[in-house]
Amino acid sequence: MKRKKRGKWVKWSTYSLVFLTVLLIGPLLTMFSCTANLKGHWSTANRESTKQAPDPQKNPEAVVQVYAARAYSWRGIFGVHMWFAVKPAAATHYTMYQVLGWRARRGQSVVDSYSGIPDRHWFGNKPDLIVDIRGARASKIIPQIAKAAASYPYADQYRIWPGPNSNTFIAHIGREVPELGLSMPANAIGKDFLPNGNLIAQTPSGTGYHVSIFGLLGVGVALKEGLEFNFLGLTFGIDFLRPAIKLPGIGRIGMNSDPG
To answer: In this structure, is residue 260 part of a structural domain?
Structure first.
C-alpha cells in the first residue's frame, strides 16, 4: 500500500514538474536570450522614437496606432505593455492612452492621456506596431477610442497580475471599438481579465468570444486571435488565419499578425 501511495506521489510530482517547466520555458528563454531589457535604471533607459509613426508635421491624415513593448525590468520576461497613439486629421501632435500602475499609488486615475512621442522605446524596449489605421477610417475611430478610455471601469485600480492592468485597459477599448480589429499579443498578460466579473465576453478583435475566470483560467476562439488557452494569466494558442503558435513569455512564433 505504501509503495502504491509513494508511486502515485512520484507520478503526480513528475507531472507537476513537467507542467511547471512548460509554463516557464518561454519566460526563461526570454530572459536568457536578452529579449527583455533587464539592465540599467528607468531614468536612464532609452525613450527615443523608433520612427514607426508618421511625422504629424508632414502627414495631415488621421492616424490610429497601437504599440506593444516588453514591460520594464523583470516584468518584460513574462509580457508586454501596450498603449494607443492617435492623431486626428490635421493635428500637429499625437495623443497617447495607456494605464500606469504608479498613478494608483498616488491616488490618481491609472488612465493616462497625454501628448508626446507615440512610438518611443518603452524604457529600453523597442515597441512592435500592432495596429496601424489611417485616413477616414481612423477619423471615425478616434472619438470612439476616447469615449472607451473614459469608460474604463478600473480607473482607480491596478494589479499587475492577473489584472486589471495596462493590457486589461487596451482589451477594454478593443471590445468597445470592434472596428479596430485588435488582436492582442499572446504575452499581453491581463488581456483576459474580463470587466465587472463577467465570465464571457467578446475577444478584443470583436471576431469571437472568450470565457475566463478572473483572468486565471479561460479559453477563447476567434477569427483573428485563433484558439487560445489561458492558465494563470499565461497564454498558449494557435492562429489559423496567419499560421503561428503562441507561447507564454515568448508570444507569437510564425507569421506576423496583420497591423492593418
So the answer is: no
H or E, element range at 3: helix 2-32
- Split into its structural domains, the chain has a count of 1
Q: Could you tell me if residue 259 is inside a domain?
A: no
Closest CA to 126 of 48, 11, 189, 25: 48
**Burial of 107 from C-beta contacts in 10 A (0-12 / 13-18 / 19+):** exposed
The pTM is what?
0.89
Nearest Cα to Cα of residue 76 among 129, 40, 22: 40
Per-residue pLDDT of the chain in tens (260 residues, 90 and over written 9): 555 556 566 566 665 566 666 667 777 677 767 677 777 787 888 899 999 999 999 999 999 999 999 998 888 999 999 999 999 999 999 999 999 999 999 999 999 999 999 999 999 999 999 999 999 999 999 999 999 999 999 999 999 999 999 999 999 999 999 999 999 999 999 999 998 889 999 999 999 999 999 999 999 999 999 999 999 999 999 999 899 999 998 889 888 877 76
CA distance 235 to 255: 18
Question: For residue 24, is it within any domain?
Answer: yes
Cell of 129: 506596431
Domain residues for 93?
2-254
Q: Would residue 11 count as lying in a domain? A: yes
Residue whose C-alpha cell is 516588453: 70
